[in-house]
Amino acid sequence: SLAKLAKITGKNKSSFSLVLNGNYPGNLEKFLNEVKEKLEEVGLWVEEGKRGQEKKRNFRFKVDPSVFIETRNVQAFRELVLELLSGEALLGPTLGAVTGLTGRGKSTAAKHIATTVEGVVYLRALPFWSTTDLLREICFVLTGERPRYKAKCMELIAKRCQVRRRLLIVDEADGLTMKEHLNPLRGLNEVCQMPIVFVGEERLPEVLREERRLWHRVRRVVVFRDITVGDLVLFWKEAVGIKLSTEVVNTLYKRCAGDFRLVVGDAENACRIMNSLGLAEMTMEVVEKLPEFKPE
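Now predict its structure.
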């Protein structure tokens, strides 16, 4: 993109736009030569006759931690959240569940949605919390306060939900107990009219089914499936800035077995290897040097 090109060369993005539109006001030849020299320095410009040297460069690869890939799983999660927040949800169940194998991106998606969708808050629940602990933490993410007693927590939560509709995402919900956590959350959902989405691993629906009154209030269960080949390719393009060959893609996808965490781990290790070898592309040589994953 022009933004990346401007960052690498130290030129203004607007200058490249003017060049492309044929309106550059300065010395065009000088500008292009400066751009060429900078690209040659980082190994991104290769003259004919120098094809044997294209792999060597000074630019260092790294995984951009700010990149977020909007997979089909994330889209389904977001749709559930928006549905529960809408006025239509008042006519039916206002609980939801998101489940799937570990490493499929559920928690990352939950945090991202909480920061990008107005009215959504995120809570990572801990199994050793008491009911009071749980209510205090919910109160804190909603109001910034942690009252000492349950009644005060409920009062503040109810007031905040009256001002504007809120939705609470409770992560690691499959580790919570029915008596201490899940039934109190059901009560909170009813009393405060606050939609709640439970996030957890595969056993989450089984846990919710233990209480019929709770399970019947679940509008929909979103299952996070394995990531796709397209997800892997897009992650490498956006987070690392590399377009992978078909052979490398297929090998990396087989290695990750649908787990996004393993994709990120491979990318981080590959960046270190490419940087140490001075390579400008992701090759099968690099793939073969990637460390083996821990056995299941």
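Residues 51-56 have pLDDT under 50 and may be disordered.
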